[in-house]
Amino acid sequence: MKNIICIGCGIVGYATCLSLSSLGHSMVGIDTCMIARNRMINMNFSCFSPDEVMFEEKMNDILVDVILIALPTPFCSLTNTLSDESIMLSIGLISYLIKKKKDDNPVMIILQSTVSVGTSRKLFNGLKLFNTDDNCNYHLFYHPEFLRAEKSQYDALHPIKQIFGLTDGKPKMDLSYYENILEEIFSPIGSFRSSITMMSSSEEAEFLKLVHNFSNAMRISFSNCCAHLASLLSSKLDKEIDASRVLSVVSETAESFYNNKYGIKPGYPYSGACLPKDIQCFMNITEQYPYRQFLESVHLINEQEKNK
């Protein structure tokens, strides 16, 4: 059993707390939002504001083994990427929690927010500036989540894949060392959960999450494009062509077409808190023709569907 602190108790943080507590771990939340804190408290989790933790010392008796970070990363139009402001502003709080560690085992810091590639490294470098003491022993990982907003709690309890990318900690160990610890936390013996998959770096894991989200968006836009073509042909030929029926069959005949769990329906644009901002971040990685135009077309088709 691990003592886990979750910074950010929104959709992802709350679902993760429910999931990990079901494995026997002790969960404590930290959030600036009173609504999020009350939801945690109503589920019998302790949950505090950052001020209560750092200035009122309400967590003095709470042990720390793992720090989860599930903070919002909205799209920033000034930088054309995902904002890491909330994450960087949490460095002081994370450093405070690291120093509360009461044994020699390293604190495992796990970033779950969808971020721009390189954010975990930026966070790690920021933590180094705050923690110059050699006794501050911690390791930082990026752990992309694959949760659907409407079924986040179910998805957290039944993870499809559990991906981790390491940002070098102190001291550097063999990857199997980290893998064994992560297995204890996220996939303990008898839990029947998917095993841990280690990527070569946190940057690779961050890129994987953006590719995952863009893949979903691309298939949604592709299905909407098919719906448009089917409608044109139906009118021209005076014969009904049902795009939903066609795509349902294609999902079985075409390799890796789409994950049926995402419920892609022709004529319905993607929306929500994640895909729109993450797709903008992904397509702004390049300005080179024709790659930018291909990536941008997914966004433009979605905008067309929204405006119908």
From TrEMBL:
Domain UDP-glucose/GDP-mannose dehydrogenase N-terminal residue range list: 3-171
Top-rank lineage group of the source organism: Eukaryota
Membrane spanning stretches: none
Gene3D superfamilies, alphabetized: N-(1-d-carboxylethyl)-l-norvaline Dehydrogenase, domain 2, NAD(P)-binding Rossmann-like Domain
A family per Pfam: UDPG_MGDP_dh
Any GO MF annotation of the entry: oxidoreductase activity, acting on the CH-OH group of donors, NAD or NADP as acceptor
Annotated ranges, domain UDP-glucose/GDP-mannose dehydrogenase dimerisation: 203-303
UniProt similarity note: Belongs to the UDP-glucose/GDP-mannose dehydrogenase family.
Name assigned to this protein: UDP-glucose 6-dehydrogenase
